[in-house]
Automatic annotation (TrEMBL):
PANTHER family: SECERNIN, SECERNIN-2. Transmembrane segments: none annotated. This is Secernin-2. GO terms for molecular function: cysteine-type exopeptidase activity; dipeptidase activity. Residues 1-37 are annotated as: Disordered. InterPro entries: Peptidase_C69 (IPR005322).
Length: 240
């Protein structure tokens, strides 16, 4: 969210159930409970929230945003036993010719990187989502097409998220960063820390304080769409 951070706010999960007013009755006083109340409590006790089945990203720009702000959000459906950490990396300066080790391969480092906050699986270098010091936000989703998905080591889509944030001072510049790296190094490698490789192409949603971009890829092919107003979401399908 571009604007004030609210660390005390509570996140509401999809499928979360809030107790109805009937549930505040004294559980130690069964005589006070009507049959309707008992049935309601039994139903609530046996309810299990549905498990999220897809990964989603959305952005809202004025006039769709009530407060005339750009709002960016993303959920995650990574493996339940995988550690997802929120980490901060400060801006950095590097000597020309330096390499940076991503999850599987090295790429040429730039001379200056932006400060970033990332949400990422702890075992890899990249990130599922994040923001940088210039207010650029990026999230990615897995997609599949008729283009073969490579299992050989290359850049993960999550590596490209971090690289776009570290090198892009606007959403449009981050699109240029990601597409240039995609064309140079390609995408590939397993996206899960598991014996059986799990691979996919990637679609990205990028936003800053004035606009957003949808970037869809398959192998080294890509297409991008600029969003200047309204709202847009991406999931696990190609849409452009």
């Amino acid at each position: 969210v571009h604007g004030d951070f609210r660390p005390n706010s509570r996140a509401i999960q999809r499928g979360q159930v809030f107790p109805s007013p009937l549930a505040v009755a004294d559980p130690e006083s069964p005589k006070k409970q009507s049959p309707e109340l008992k049935g309601s409590l039994n139903t609530m006790a046996s309810f299990y929230p549905p498990v999220p089945s897809s990964c989603d990203c959305f952005v809202s720009l004025p006039p769709a945003s009530f407060a005339k702000e750009v709002i960016f959000g993303k959920n995650s459906d990574r493996p339940k036993d995988e550690v997802q950490e929120v980490v901060y990396f400060p801006a950095g300066c590097y000597v020309k010719g330096t390499k940076v080790q991503c999850t599987y391969i090295e790429v040429d480092q730039v001379e200056k990187t932006h400060a970033v906050i990332l949400s990422r699986p702890a075992w890899l270098w990249g990130a599922e989502m994040g923001a940088n010091e210039h207010g650029v936000c990026i999230g990615n989703e897995g997609v599949w097409s008729r283009e073969p998905v490579g299992e050989e080591d290359a850049l993960l889509g999550m590596d490209l998220v971090r690289l776009g944030l570290e090198r892009g001072s606007s959403a449009s510049e981050a699109v240029q960063v990601i597409t240039a790296l995609l064309e140079s190094y390609g995408q590939g490698g397993s996206c899960k820390e598991a014996p059986t490789p799990f691979v996919y192409h990637n679609t990205f949603l990028l936003a800053d304080r004035t606009e957003a971009w949808v970037l869809e890829t398959a192998g080294r092919f890509w297409v991008a769409q600029r969003i200047q107003e309204g709202d847009r979401n991406i999931s696990n399908q190609l849409t452009i």
